[in-house]
Specification:
The structure is a single chain. By secondary structure, the chain is mostly helical. It has one domain. About 50% of the residues lie in helices and about 0% in strands. It has four helices and no strands. It is rod-shaped, with a radius of gyration of 22 Å. The chain starts with a helix and ends with a helix.
Length: about 80
C-alpha cells in the first residue's frame, strides 16, 4: 500500500508518518518495498501485534521446551516392549 495508507494504519498524517518513519524502522517497523515504495499492511499489523502481545493472547506462540532425554528413552523402550 502507498505510504498514505500505511500512515492511516497508524492513525497518523502522511507528514507525521514521513517524519517519524526512520524512528519507526529503527524500532522494527517494516520498511517499504525498495522498488515501489509501498508498504505491506500485513507486515505492519504483525509489527503492531508484537509490540503489544498482552492484547493478542491468541496470537502468542509458546516456544517448545526440551524434554528430558531419560523420559524419551523410557517411552521408546516401553514402546519397543509393547507397553
Amino acid at each position: 500500500m502507498p505510504p498514505v495508507t500505511a500512515a492511516r494504519r497508524l492513525a497518523m498524517t502522511l507528514e507525521a508518518f514521513t517524519k517519524e518513519l526512520p524512528s519507526l524502522i529503527a524500532r522494527g517497523f517494516p520498511a517499504p518495498d525498495p522498488t515501489t515504495g509501498n508498504f505491506d499492511l500485513d507486515a505492519i499489523d504483525k509489527w503492531r501485534r508484537t509490540r503489544n502481545p498482552h492484547l493478542y493472547p491468541d496470537r502468542v506462540t509458546v516456544a517448545p521446551t526440551a524434554r528430558d532425554a531419560k523420559d524419551v528413552v523410557k517411552e521408546r523402550i516401553a514402546g519397543l516392549r509393547g507397553g
